Structures are given as C-alpha cells and as structure tokens.
C-alpha cells in the first residue's frame, strides 16, 4: 500500500471515530466537514508551518511513538477482556474503522459477539450490542457506568464540562439533572411555555404557505424551527424586532461553527499525550467560539437582569428567568452557579436541536413516501382536530397512530445510535468479561433495534407494530427498545422531544399535503454521526389542505 493511501485510510478512520467520541451534538453541517482530506490538509498545514522546528518535531514523534507503544503493551488487554479484531502497534484498530460506525460495529458484532473490544490509539473501547448486556451496563451496573469519556473540544465547548452531558456522576450532576428534568423540562414547566413554542410553529406554517407548490428542504426548515423553539423557550421576548433577528442569526452561526468543530478529527483525543501541542488548532478555535457563545449568553443575562431590576420581567415564564431566580434563591450545598446556568442553556440548544430535527425529517420522509402511513396519519388528524381548526399541542395525546410513527422512526433511526459513550469509574465484569476502568463504552442501540430475533421484518417501517404493544415506550425499562438510553444517564429531554416531534409533525401533516418533486427517488440512507442524519436531505412540495386561508396566518 502506498504512503498516501495509508495516510488516507488513517484519516478516514480517525474522522469516523472522532464523530463517535464527540459530544452528543453532531450537527447538520458536519456533512461538509467529515472529509478525510480536510483533516489531512489541516494536519499537514500545522506541521509545515513548523519548518524550523522540524528536527525537534521528528525527535518528539519518535519518543512519543515509543512511549505510546510501551503504554499500549503495558495496558494490553488481559485474556479476560472481550474479544475483538487484531490491531496494529500504536494505532490499534484506528486504521480499519469504517466511517459508518453504527453499521460497522453491527457487522463486527456478528463475528466477535454481543460484546467486543477495540483499541483506538491510546483509548480502549467496548461495544455492546445485545439487550442482556445493555441491561448489565445500564441497569445492573448503572452507577459504575454513569460517567462519560469527554473529548478535548467537548470539554472546552461546555464550560470545562460543567454541563449535564459531561459532568461525571456525583452531587453536581444530580443537582443539574434535577434542575433540568424536574424543573425546566417537566410537563408542567413545558406547559407554561407552550405559547413560545406555538409562535415558532405558526411562523413555520406561514413560511411553508408562502412556498406552496415549490420544493422545500424539510430538514433545514425543521432545524431552524426547532432551534427557534428552543431559544424562544430559553429567553422568550428578551429582545424584540431587529435586535432579536440579529442575535438569532449570530447564535445560529456560532452553534453551527461550534458543532462543526466538535465533529473535526482531533489527534489530541486518540493520543492524549499530544493534547498539549494542539496540532490542528481545534482547541484554539473552540476557545474562540466558546467565548463568542458566552458573549451571547452574557448579553442576554445582562439585559434580563436590567429588566428584572426595573421590575419589567415579573411575569416572564421562560427558562432564563426561571434559572436566574433559582440561582438567587439556591442555598443548597451544591449551589447553581452562573457557569452552570450557561452550560444548562447550552445543553438545551445543542442537545435538543439536531436530535429532534433529524428525527422529524426521517419520519416525514417515511410518511410522505408511504401512502398508507400518510393516509392513517391524516385521517387521525382529521378526526381529532378537524379541517376547520389548526392542530394544537393539546391534541397530541389523542393521536396514538402518530405516537406509533414516532416510536417506529426512533426504532429504525435512533437519533443517538451508539448512545453518548459511557465510561466505568472502576474495573467491572460484564457479560463474563473484564471491562477496565476508564474504557469508552458504546451501546449499539441501532443494532438492537434492527435485530431479527427481536423484531419481525425489522427493516420494514411499520408503525402499527407499536399500536398494540404498550410496553414499548421511551422509559428505558425495555432493553429491546431504548432510543433515549436507559438508567441514570437517560436523555434529559424526553418530554420535550416528544412534544416537539408530535406537535411539529401533526401541524405539518394536518396543514399540508406533501409530494416529492418529480423524478426524485426515495432514499432513506443514513449518515453516521453522534446524531444520525439522513444522507440525502428530504425535499418535498407542500400543498395546503385546510379550507380556510386564515388558518395559515
Ligand atoms: C428525538 C430526540 C432525542 C433523542 C432520540 C435523544 C436521545 C438521547 C440519548 C440516547 C442520550 C444519551 C443517553 C445515554 O448516554 O445513556 C441523550 C442524552 C441527553 N439528552 Fe437527549 N435526545 C433527544 C432530545 C433531547 C432534547 C430535546 C433535549 C433537551 C432540550 C435533550 C437533552 C439531553 C441531555 C441533557 C442529555 C445528557 C443526559 C445526561 O448525561 O445525564 N435531548 N439523549
């Protein structure tokens, strides 16, 4: 194999692993970034700028290689560690990974069994792909595995990992989780900010109405809608008019750029000894973005505090108002700090947007391309809502078929296909094998959801399989079906994800008929990332189906 081929295959592989080891938040824009060539040029640029330091650099690489090799030999898996494909010195299995990690891990599990191991640079990874072993990890040893493997970029992006996703299991995580799940994202709190969600959905309907008869990129529209819904719930009407639009645009840009960087391959993650050098400048760029992000939060918080001091915000019911109040009142042993407030807001924005928007896009693609599913969804809406009214969030509890569509979409396309990697706080036995403390554990929920020993005709999109099977829900108690994870680290935003999905899809399918443009083929292929997405964006043409045009205003 030629030198450049070897390089390229290394680069392809590092890209794919980096996507898996990042924060929860792979975003739409990653598709442009996960190019191995980009990584190659980036790395080589950084190195060539160091011309004068080349001898020093090469000497360093030599010492580093020997040190890594020694380290890997020293930590060589014991015979009781899970089986796995053989690897190379230094790189381990990095060079043979496929970018579509979820399906690649599924095929490896057919050879090596429901629990296997990989060496990725200096990281030791475990992949679990059966209900019974997932149960051991997420239920029987829940506390031990309730920690995370944090990437360099992820840590910087989240105020040093001071958010819910990356904080290790302990009192601070418990406090953040309580604030988030019980106080901000509970059904009662979500009810109180319904008007803020409704405003955004109505704006999207207005926009789609203006595009009647023309193709619309549905994924893009849903991403913007969900992001606006979330930011609106966070700070509601703190800003008005042009100022609001300007902050919205800036915010979107920062989120897009930050998540772009979160998906960039970073040598520092595979070889922690190299982190200090930040060869690709990922850390530097991320610091600058995190500062920009922080400036937006600072600005919103300052404006809100000023309004509060003038007594203008008394009646506000958004998350920012709630968190600031909680922070002032908090006298517990683990107080909520301003950094926690900002990190929590960021979790809402980054954790909630792509997951929900991509799931909605997959669902709409299935509905639009399967006439029988479309007919049942619209019939249910017509009988519950009626064509003379618009869909409201209060209707969603009366739409069992639509709920089944959501469950079936998340079965075939779980938004976070390998969950967020878990990390045991001590060496533990699982499935009869020893899992070393600090390993990076992937739970392949995607493979379990397509396992033909569990599901009849698993590749068929068939919502009715969930209609009679009430035990299959999102609670994480059933290890045949757990798209939101399970145990202590189960998704913190299930209630919100459910509402966002059901209300958005109900509104779009009730207000419009949809057709794919002439000549376009039905394509449901997936693109792996921490958040799974549709490889080919869904483009469809809306036609109004409600009788009264006033219902689109
Ligand atoms: C369809 C939508 C969504 C899906 C499928 C989803 C799925 C997941 C999964 C699988 C995890 C990791 C669980 C684990 O590691 O065991 C997770 C974690 C998380 N999700 Fe979601 N999620 C969605 C939407 C949301 C929304 C809307 C929010 C908030 C607004 C959110 C906030 C979080 C947070 C904060 C965590 C980290 C929890 C922790 O580490 O304690 N998610 N999600």
Automatic annotation (TrEMBL):
Keyword flag Metal-binding: yes
Cofactor(s) annotated in UniProt: heme
Transmembrane portions of the chain: 53-72
GO MF, any single term: heme binding
Keywords, sorted A to Z: Heme, Iron, Membrane, Metal-binding, Monooxygenase, Oxidoreductase, Transmembrane, Transmembrane helix
Record keyword Iron present: yes
Residue sites binding heme per the record: 491
PANTHER family, per database record: CYTOCHROME P450, FAMILY 706, SUBFAMILY A, POLYPEPTIDE 4, OS08G0547900 PROTEIN
UniProt similarity note: Belongs to the cytochrome P450 family.
Protein name: Cytochrome P450
């Amino acid at each position: 194999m030629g030198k450049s081929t070897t390089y390229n295959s290394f680069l392809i592989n590092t890209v794919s692993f980096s996507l898996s080891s990042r924060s929860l938040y792979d975003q739409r824009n990653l598709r442009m970034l996960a190019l191995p060539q980009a990584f190659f040029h980036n790395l080589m640029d950084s190195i060539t700028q160091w011309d004068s330091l080349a001898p020093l650099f090469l000497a360093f690489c030599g010492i580093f290689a020997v040190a890594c090799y020694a380290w890997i030999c020293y930590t060589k898996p014991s015979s009781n560690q899970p089986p796995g494909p053989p690897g190379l010195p230094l790189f381990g299995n990095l060079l043979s990974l496929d970018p579509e990690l979820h399906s690649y891990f599924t095929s490896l599990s057919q050879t090596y069994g429901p629990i296997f191991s990989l060496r990725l640079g200096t990281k030791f990874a475990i992949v679990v792909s059966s209900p019974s072993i997932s149960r051991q990890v997420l239920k029987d040893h829940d506390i031990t595995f309730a920690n995370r493997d944090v990437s360099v970029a992820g840590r910087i992006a989240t105020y040093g990992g001071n958010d819910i996703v990356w904080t290790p299991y302990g009192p601070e995580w418990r406090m953040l989780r309580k604030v988030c799940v019980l106080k901000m994202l509970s059904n009662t709190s979500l009810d109180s900010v319904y008007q803020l969600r409704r405003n955004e959905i109505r704006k999207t309907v207005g926009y789609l109405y203006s595009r009647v008869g023309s193709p619309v990129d549905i994924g893009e529209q849903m991403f913007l809608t969900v992001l606006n819904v979330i930011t609106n719930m966070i700070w509601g009407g703190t800003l008005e008019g042009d100022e609001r639009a300007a902050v919205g645009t800036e915010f979107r840009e920062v989120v897009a750029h930050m998540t772009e960087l979160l998906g960039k391959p970073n040598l520092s993650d595979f070889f922690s000894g190299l982190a200090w050098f930040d060869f690709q400048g990922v850390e530097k760029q991320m610091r600058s973005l995190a500062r920009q992000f922080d400036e937006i939060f600072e600005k919103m918080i300052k404006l809100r505090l000023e309004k509060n001091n003038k007594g203008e915000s008394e009646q506000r019911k958004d998350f920012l108002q709630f968190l600031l109040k909680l922070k002032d009142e908090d006298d517990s042993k683990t107080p909520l700090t301003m950094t926690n407030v900002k990190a929590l807001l960021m979790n809402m924005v980054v954790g909630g947007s792509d997951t929900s928007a991509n799931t909605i896009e997959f669902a709409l693609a299935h509905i639009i391309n399967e006439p029988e599913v479309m007919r049942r969804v619209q019939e249910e809406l017509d009988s519950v809502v009626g064509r003379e009214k618009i869909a409201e969030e209060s209707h969603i509890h009366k739409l069992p078929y639509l709920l089944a569509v959501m469950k079936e979409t998340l079965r075939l396309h779980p938004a976070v296909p390998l969950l967020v990697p878990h990390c045991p706080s001590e060496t533990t036995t699982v499935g009869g094998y020893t899992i070393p403390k600090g390993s990076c554990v992937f739970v392949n929920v995607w493979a379990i959801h397509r396992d033909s020993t569990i599901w009849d005709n698993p590749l068929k999109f068939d919502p009715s399989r969930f209609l009679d099977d009430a035990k299959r829900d999102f609670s994480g108690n059933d290890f045949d079906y757990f798209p939101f994870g399970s145990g202590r680290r189960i998704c913190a935003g299930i209630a919100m994800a459910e509402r966002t999905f059901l209300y958005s899809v109900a509104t779009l399918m009730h207000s419009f008929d949809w057709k794919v443009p002439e000549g376009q083929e039905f394509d449901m292929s997936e693109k792996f990332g921490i958040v799974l997405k549709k490889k080919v964006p869904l483009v469809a043409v809306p036609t109004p189906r409600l009788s009264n045009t006033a219902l689109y205003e």
